[in-house]
């Protein structure tokens, strides 16, 4: 993820004749020359920050720029913390899989779905196995029935060449409201 940050112009970097000035408390001070707005900001001991450069005239606000920048970074960090990134996990099987191997793969599928990840199940046929697709379909049907409580089929089963592919997505969990918790 690439984040393009646009630096705001502050103090002497503001190169326009007039600005619409907003005071430190949010009150409108009207359209004033830039030099006068800069003098007011320095008198208070704060920065003059251009918050809307595309407006006519540009809107500037008197504020503590470093504190503003810190709060913005804190908000972005908090927003990133609460988002969940869904990963795609792939599990590969063969049609003649033994019971213990099947259980291990099924455990992995269930773990991935319970974590909230997507799962791509690929049944691969080698050599003469391709003539017995029905055996592979039985294994896939068994996986689907074993994971019905944790996941839903997003698409599939689809045969692509020597593979049969099924994509699972986790079932949506009902959100618990704070009012319901006593």
Topology:
Layout: E1 18-22, E2 28-33, H1 34-44, E3 47-52, E4 59-63, H2 65-81, E5 88-93, H3 99-115, E6 118-124, H4 133-146, E7 151-160, E8 163-170
What is this entry, summarized?
With 182 residues, the chain is an alpha/beta fold. It has helices at residues 34-44, 65-81, 99-115, 133-146; strands at residues 18-22, 28-33, 47-52, 59-63, 88-93, 118-124, 151-160, 163-170. A hairpin with a 2-residue loop joins β7 (151-160) and β8 (163-170).
Which oligomeric state applies?
Answer: single chain
Report, as a whole number of angstroms, the end-to-end distance: 40 Å
Number of domains: 2
CATH topology of the largest domain, anyone? Translation Initiation Factor IF3
Approximately how much beta-strand content do the residues carry? 25-35%
CATH first level of the largest domain: Alpha Beta
Tally of DSSP β-strands: 8
Task: Please describe the biggest sheet, giving its number of strands, its sense, and whether it closes into a barrel.
Answer: 4 strands, mixed
Contiguous low-pLDDT stretches (5 residues minimum) are: 1-5, 174-182
**Which class do the helix and strand fractions yield?**
alpha/beta
Q: Order of strands side by side in the largest beta sheet? A: 2-1-4-3
Instruction: Supply Rg.
Output: 30 Å
**Helical percent range?**
25-40%
Q: What overall geometry do the principal axes of the alpha carbons give?
A: rod-shaped
């Amino acid at each position: 993820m690439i984040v393009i940050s646009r630096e705001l112009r502050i103090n002497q970097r503001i190169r326009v004749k007039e600005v619409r000035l907003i005071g430190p408390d949010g009150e409108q001070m009207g359209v004033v020359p830039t030099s006068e707005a800069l003098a007011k900001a320095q008198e208070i001991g704060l920065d003059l920050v251009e918050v809307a450069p595309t407006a006519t005239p540009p809107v500037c606000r008197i504020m503590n720029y470093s504190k503003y920048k810190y709060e913005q970074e804190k908000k972005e960090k908090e927003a990133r913390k609460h988002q969940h990134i869904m990963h795609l996990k792939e599990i590969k099987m063969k049609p003649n899989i033994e019971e213990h191997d099947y259980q291990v793969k099924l455990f992995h599928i269930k773990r991935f779905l319970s974590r909230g990840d997507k799962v791509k199940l690929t049944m691969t046929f080698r050599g003469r196995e391709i003539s017995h697709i029905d055996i592979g379909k039985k294994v896939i049907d068994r996986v689907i029935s074993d994971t019905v409580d944790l996941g839903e089929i997003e698409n599939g089963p689809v045969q692509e060449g020597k593979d049969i592919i099924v994509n699972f997505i986790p079932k949506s969990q009902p959100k618990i409201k704070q009012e319901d918790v006593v």
